[in-house]
Automatic annotation (TrEMBL):
It catalyses: L-aspartate 4-semialdehyde + phosphate + NADP(+) = 4-phospho-L-aspartate + NADPH + H(+). GO terms for biological process: 'de novo' L-methionine biosynthetic process; diaminopimelate biosynthetic process; isoleucine biosynthetic process; lysine biosynthetic process via diaminopimelate; threonine biosynthetic process. This is Aspartate-semialdehyde dehydrogenase. The gene is asd_2. NADP(+) binds at residues 13-16, 41-42, 160-161, 316. It comes from Acaryochloris thomasi RCC1774.
Length: 347
C-alpha cells in the first residue's frame, strides 16, 4: 500500500510558501498531515488546502516532533536556526534558502539534472538559486551531448525574486510614477517600475554581486564540473513574475543550432518556443504560472565558431523555487528516502 507523509512548510505565508501549498495539492503529494509554520507576525493566518482551512502556527522546536519532511522557504538565517532542529527531530529538510547550498555535505539538486544526488543527503537537501535552476534545466541536455566549456549569462530578473512584498511595491511604484508622485522604495533600493538596475546583492572584490556568484558556484556543483567557466551579469527588471536569461554557450567543437533545438524539444522541464516569422520567443508573461522553462531563439554565435546562443523565460516562484522543492520531495518518496507515517489518504 502506498504511504503518506507528515509535511511542514516553513515560511508558509510568503510567495514561495503559498506556491508550495498549491503545488502539493495540485500534484497530489501523499500527505497525512500538513503543518504551516511562519513567524509570530504571521501566526493565526488561515490557508486553504484540499478543502480544509489550516491555521498558520508560529515556528517552535516542538512543531517538528511529528514531521517527516520540511519544505523551508523563510530565508537563510531562519533555515540555519531551524533546519538542524528539524533534522534532529527526524525530518528531512528541503531548503530553498542559500544557507546550505555550497556546503559540501549537502546535495544541491535540480531533479532534471542530478536526481541521484538526493541519495547522499544527511537530512538537508538544498534548492538552488532561481536563476541557476532555470539555466540548468535549459543547458544541461546540451551539456550531455557535448560538454560546455564556458557560459556567459545575462539575467533579467523579476520582482518576484524579492518576494510578495516586492511585487506589491512595484505596483505601488508604477501608480505613484504615473500620478507624478515619488515612488516608494522600502524593499528595493531604487524604483524598479519603468526602470532597471544591476542586482543589488553584495559586491565582491572582483565586482561580481552575490546573485551572480550563486550562478557561478552553484552550476559547477550541480553539474559536478568545478572547471566549468561561468560569468554572469544579473539585472533586476520591471517584471512582476518570471525571470528571463540570455545564455551564451561555448563548446569544444561546433554545436549545430538545429541539433540543439531537437535535443531541447524532448528534454524534461523544457518547452521550445520559437516563431521566427513572427519574431516570437519566450516571454515572462507566457512563462508565469507554468512548470516548464521556455527556451527559444537558439542560434549560432557569429563571434565564435563553437558558440551557441539561447534565450529563456521561467517562472521564478514556480520552477525557480517551489516546484523544484516539491520535485525533490517527490524524489525522496519515489526512492524511499523518507519514513512513511501512514497509509495514503484517498484523493
Amino acid at each position: 500500500m502506498s504511504q503518506s507523509y507528515r509535511v511542514a512548510i516553513l515560511g508558509a505565508t510568503g510567495a514561495v510558501g503559498t506556491e508550495l501549498l498549491q503545488l502539493l495539492e495540485a500534484r497530489k503529494f501523499p500527505i497525512s498531515e500538513l503543518t504551516l509554520l511562519a513567524s509570530e507576525r504571521s501566526a493565526g493566518e488561515v490557508r486553504s488546502f484540499r478543502g480544509e482551512e489550516l491555521t498558520v502556527e508560529a515556528v517552535s522546536p516542538e512543531k517538528f516532533d511529528a514531521v517527516d519532511i520540511v519544505l523551508a522557504s523563510a530565508g537563510g538565517s531562519t533555515s540555519k536556526e531551524w533546519a538542524p532542529i528539524a533534522v534532529k527531530a527526524g525530518a528531512v529538510v528541503v531548503d530553498n534558502s542559500s544557507a546550505f547550498r555550497m556546503d559540501p555535505q549537502v546535495p544541491l539538486v535540480v531533479p532534471e539534472v542530478n536526481p541521484d544526488a538526493v541519495e547522499a543527503h544527511g537530512g538537508v537537501i538544498a534548492n538552488p538559486n532561481c536563476t541557476t535552476i532555470l539555466m540548468s534545466v535549459a543547458v544541461w541536455p546540451l551539456h550531455q551531448k557535448q560538454p560546455i566549456q564556458r557560459i556567459v549569462a545575462s539575467t533579467y530578473q523579476s520582482a518576484s525574486g524579492a518576494g510578495a512584498r516586492a511585487m506589491e511595491e512595484v505596483k505601488q511604484q508604477a501608480r505613484a510614477i504615473l500620478q507624478g508622485q515619488v515612488p516608494p522604495t522600502e524593499i528595493f533600493p531604487y524604483p524598479l517600475a519603468f526602470n532597471l538596475f544591476p542586482h543589488n546583492s553584495d559586491l565582491n572584490d572582483q565586482g561580481y554581486c552575490a546573485e551572480e556568484m550563486k550562478m557561478v558556484q552553484e552550476t559547477g556543483k550541480i553539474f559536478a564540473a568545478s572547471d566549468l567557466r561561468i560569468s554572469a551579469t544579473c539585472v533586476r527588471v520591471p517584471v512582476l513574475r518570471a525571470h528571463s536569461e540570455a545564455i551564451n554557450l561555448e563548446f569544444e567543437q561546433p554545436f549545430d543550432a538545429d541539433e540543439a533545438r531537437e535535443i531541447l524539444k524532448s528534454s524534461p522541464g523544457v518547452k521550445l518556443v520559437e516563431d521566427w516569422q513572427a519574431n516570437y520567443f519566450p516571454m515572462p508573461m507566457d512563462a508565469s504560472g507554468r512548470d516548464e522553462v521556455l527556451v527559444g531563439r537558439i542560434r549560432q554565435d557569429i563571434s565564435h565558431p563553437n558558440g551557441l546562443e539561447l534565450w529563456l523565460s521561467g517562472d521564478q516562484i514556480r520552477k525557480g523555487a517551489a516546484l523544484n522543492a516539491v520535485q525533490i520531495a517527490e524524489l525522496l518518496v519515489e526512492r524511499n528516502l523518507l519514513k512513511a507515517s501512514a497509509p495514503a489518504l484517498a484523493l
